Amino acid sequence: MVDELKRVADLVRQEPSIEKKTYYFSAAYGITNRTYRYSFSKEVLIADLLLTGVYNMLMERLNAIKAGNQNVLLEPLVFEKICDGLIELAKCIESNESIFEPLGDIAVAGFSITGIGNYLKEKGELKL
Which of 66, 61, 93 is nearest to 79 (CA)? Predict the structure, then answer.
């Protein structure tokens, strides 16, 4: 699982297309989903739920942009923060440390592209 999460982060970082970045990111929750099916843990389940939620936020924003809504764009920094979070998540899993911080960073990056998250970012209250 650790190596796979790192690979997903590398693929997302290297890909220039926003659509393809989002596609590659979907593998992250696929990894956690497979993992908890074979070796259940609350931590992996929480990671799976959060990664799935962030993927859904990305897809909603991507679909809104494609439909012509340019109010909130998918900045490269959002994907950088998600990738940084995936790398840290892999490290925490590998060293059996708390996964709260990296999951929190991924959640904030995903939330920043929602209407409310973007508003908070523009106000200076949400920082990536």
Answer: 61
The string of DSSP codes covering 86-126 is HHHHHHHHHTT---HHHHHHHHHHHHTTSHHHHHHHHHTSS
All residues at 6 or more sequence positions from 34 whose CB lies less than 8 Å from its CB, including other chains: none
Q: What is the pLDDT of residue 119?
A: 97
- CA 16 – CA 21 distance, rounded (Å): 7
Q: Which pLDDT value is given to residue 53?
A: 98
What tokens does 110 get?
């995903």
- The C-alpha atoms of residue 41 and residue 92 are separated, in whole angstroms, by 14
